[in-house]
Amino acid sequence: MSKPTVPIPAATKLRAMLAEKDKVVVAPGVYDGLTTRIALETGFDCLYMTGAGTTMSRLGMADLGIATLNDMVQNAGMIASIDRSVPVIADADTGYGGPLMVGRTTAQYMQAGVAALHIEDQVQTKRCGHLKNKELVDEDVYVARIRAAANMRAASAGDIVIIARTDALASLGYDAAVSRLKKAIAAGADVAFLEAITSEEQARRVCQELSPTPVLLNMVAGGMTANISVQKAKEIGFKIIIYPILSMGPMYKAVKDAAKELKETGIVERSAGADVSAKQLFELCGLNEAVEFDIAAGGSLYAKGV
C-alpha cells in the first residue's frame, strides 16, 4: 500500500505564492464554514478570516476589540481545516496582550494550521481599521509584539507568515507609519500592511519603499481606501489583497430581502437564493464526500442514498 501524500504546510505554500514573480495573492474574506465553502467552490487559492466577520457572526457585535483569542483561533482553525491545501490568512488583532500573550497567540494560530496572521499597533480596545479615532501603542510596544511573534515561531516546530499591520497613517502620518513597518520587518515580520491607504500615490510609495518585503492591500467596501482592481493593485506592486467584508455585504442584503419578503407576503419565492435547496447547500458542504467516506469504511446508514 502506498503511503499517503504529506500535505504541504500552509505557511510553506503561502510563501511560495508570495515568491512567484507575477502573482498577486487574492484572499476573499470568509467568517464561517459556509462562506469558506463558497469561496473554495469558486476556486480561490487563498482565504482571509476576517476579524470583523468573526466578531459579528460569533458574537453579534461590532468590530470594537471584543473578540478574544479563543473566539478568533477557534474560528480560524475551523476555516483552515476545511481544505488544508488552501492557505488561510487570519486576523490576530493586537495579539491579545503583552509579549507573552502574543507568543501564545502565535503558537495557537500555528497549531490551528493558519498560514499567516497579522498583528497591529492599536491599543487593546481596538476598533476596525476603517473607523475613525483609532488609538495606538508606542512604537516600542508594537515592535515588541512583532518580535514576540517571530521569537515564538523560531522556537516552535512549524511556520507561520507574520504580517505587520500599522494603523498609524491617519494619526501620525505616512513617514511615521512606514518607519513602524520598517522596524517591524527588522523584528521578524514577513509582510507589511499599511492600513487605510488614502491615495494611489501612497500605495505606490509604500510598495517601493518596503521592497523587497511584500506589501498587503486591504480592500474594505465603503472604507477609506478607494476601490482598486486586482490588476491595478498588481501593477502598483502589492503582493496580497484581502477583501474582509466580501461575504458580509451580499449576505446582509440577500437575507434581509428574503426576510422582508417573508414578513410582507408570507412566502419566499422571489428573493435571491429562494430556489436553492437544502440538499444543494449540504452538497456544497461535503455531503457526497461524507457519504462516500462512510460507505468506504463499511457503514450502511447512507448506502441507499440521502
TrEMBL record:
Q: Which reaction does it catalyse?
A: (2S,3R)-3-hydroxybutane-1,2,3-tricarboxylate = pyruvate + succinate
The Gene Ontology terms for molecular function here are: methylisocitrate lyase activity
Which Pfam families does this chain map to?
Answer: PEP_mutase
Q: Which residues cross the membrane?
A: none
Tell me which SUPFAM superfamilies the record gives.
Phosphoenolpyruvate/pyruvate domain (SSF51621)
Q: Which domain of life is it from?
A: Eukaryota
> What Gene3D superfamilies is this protein classified in?
Phosphoenolpyruvate-binding domains
Family membership: Belongs to the isocitrate lyase/PEP mutase superfamily.
User: What is this protein called in UniProt?
Assistant: Methylisocitrate lyase
Q: Origin organism of this chain?
A: Amorphotheca resinae ATCC 22711
Its lineage opens with:
Eukaryota, Fungi, Dikarya, Ascomycota, Pezizomycotina
